[in-house]
């Protein structure tokens, strides 16, 4: 008998055939082709699942957006504290005094609390070739 013709037999005839010729029966996973009606139902189920998926993804997007708005300031603060600990310093904005050192030809920038912020060589226009500004004012 042609085994491809078994589909055309009735359910009872197939059962009788299997009982007569089968040597062993065990469970296996396989793909069974869908009938036209079953395929139409699967298409409808797919459309329903797609709409539900789109709706849930939109909700997730909103939840992520709200969560991001809450977590971003915390992340920023964390990064700032980590940077401060790593550098062992805090970023401060305030007045800095420009102090010339004519003997060493350097220009120093010093914070109000005495912290030396920066030092650099004097620019040509900052050099005093004749007399110190303090002495000039005293005369």
Topology:
Elements: H1 11-21, H2 36-87, E1 96-101, E2 106-111, E3 116-121, H3 133-138
Antiparallel strand pairs: 1-2, 2-3
Explain what this protein looks like in three dimensions.
The protein has a three-stranded antiparallel beta sheet with strand order 1-2-3, with no helix packed on it. It has 139 residues and is an alpha+beta fold. Among the domains are: 37-91; 92-124, no CATH class. The protein is 50% helix and 13% strand.
Number of helices: 3
- Computed structural class: alpha+beta
| Cα separation of the termini | 128 Å
Principal-axes shape call:
rod-shaped
Helix content range: 40-55%
Note poorly predicted spans. none
Overall mean pLDDT:
89
Strand content: 5-15%
Order of helices and strands: HHEEEH
The order of strands across the largest sheet is 1-2-3
């Amino acid at each position: 008998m042609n085994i491809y013709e078994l589909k055309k037999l009735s359910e009872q005839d197939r059962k009788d055939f299997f009982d007569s010729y089968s040597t062993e029966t065990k469970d296996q996973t396989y793909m069974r082709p869908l009938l036209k009606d079953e395929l139409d139902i699967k298409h409808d189920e797919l459309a329903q699942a797609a709409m539900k998926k789109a709706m849930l993804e939109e909700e997730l997007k909103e939840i992520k957006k709200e969560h991001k708005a809450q977590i971003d300031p915390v992340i920023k603060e964390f990064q700032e504290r980590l940077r401060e600990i790593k550098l062992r310093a805090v970023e401060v904005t305030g007045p800095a005094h420009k102090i010339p050192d004519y003997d060493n030809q350097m220009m120093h920038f010093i914070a109000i609390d005495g912290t030396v912020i920066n030092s650099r060589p004097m620019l040509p226009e900052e050099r005093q070739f004749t007399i110190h500004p303090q002495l000039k004012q005293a005369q």
